[in-house]
């Protein structure tokens, strides 16, 4: 009888331990095919042309260094680049659909979200693909193709949401303006990010720049008359009311974060640019 009671007692303890273990808050992970970065890496690995590219614009500060992935490669022909763009756009839509989401095209670009256009909307990932036919001397057969993904890894939902806002996500409001509500063909809207004026929404890089006189920084500007745009480089002189005044000493062709080479352009000996802190990035 004593032996039976002992066995029952140990059985009870074992069952209790099992229930406690199962009820602990173990983070849940999604299947690999539901992560768009994983799908992007598989897209890159499909052929040698894409594999011969490089990761660019890695970011030095949170949250960009944690959630953002940018990759560039040289296509074999203009037609190949167009096919890759169409394929990647479809991949973004399929991955978004698999997550039960919908693509919404905001002023800052295309986000896959749950519960689109409601107060419960929540970002899943950001996707972008673009190409440029410039730098033909470095990419002889076709244009450069650039991919960008912004996606949560395993951060808590509130931390990811705050980071997504910093990286361009615009939460739903009754007055939010979408570029297009049509995601039938998985088209990804291409747009430059708009600087965030609220200092509470700044990322670590903007805060660092704002508090670092003498720091070398850059600003990228894409003019209406120039598809490629230019990068302006200089040092922080002073700051005021969320804006940074920089003594700019160099003007370079394109966005140096993704450009395959640095090409100096004609510029003044001394010139100042004052712009919101989030317009600048550390580049030296």
Automatic annotation (TrEMBL):
Residues 1-26 form the signal peptide. Keywords: Signal. It comes from the Bacteria. PROSITE patterns: PROKAR_LIPOPROTEIN. This is Lipoprotein. It comes from Photobacterium jeanii.
């Amino acid at each position: 009888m004593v032996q039976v009671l002992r066995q029952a007692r140990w059985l009870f303890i074992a069952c209790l331990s099992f229930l406690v273990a199962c009820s602990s808050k173990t983070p849940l992970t999604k299947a690999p095919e539901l992560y768009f970065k994983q799908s992007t890496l598989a897209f890159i690995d499909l052929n040698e042309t894409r594999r011969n590219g490089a990761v660019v614009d890695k970011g030095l500060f949170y949250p960009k260094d944690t959630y953002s992935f940018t990759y560039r490669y040289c296509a074999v022909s203009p037609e190949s680049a167009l096919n890759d763009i169409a394929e990647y756009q479809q991949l973004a839509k399929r991955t978004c659909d698999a997550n039960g989401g919908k693509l919404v095209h905001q002023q800052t670009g295309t986000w896959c979200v749950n519960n689109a256009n409601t107060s419960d909307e929540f970002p899943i990932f950001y996707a972008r693909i673009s190409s440029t036919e410039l730098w033909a001397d470095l990419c002889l057969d076709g244009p450069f193709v650039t991919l960008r993904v912004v996606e949560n890894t395993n951060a808590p939902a509130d931390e990811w949401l705050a980071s997504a806002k910093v990286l361009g996500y615009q939460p739903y409001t009754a007055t939010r303006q979408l570029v297009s509500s049509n995601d039938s063909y998985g088209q990804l809207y291409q747009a430059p990010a708009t600087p965030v004026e609220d200092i509470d929404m700044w990322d670590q890089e903007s805060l660092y720049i704002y508090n670092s006189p003498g720091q070398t920084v850059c600003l990228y500007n894409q003019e209406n008359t120039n598809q490629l745009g230019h990068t302006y480089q200089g040092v922080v002189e002073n700051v005021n009311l969320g804006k940074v005044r920089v003594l700019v000493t160099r003007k370079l062709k394109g966005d140096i974060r993704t450009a395959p080479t640095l090409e100096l352009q004609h510029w003044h000996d001394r010139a100042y640019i004052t712009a919101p802190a989030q317009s600048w990035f550390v580049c030296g």
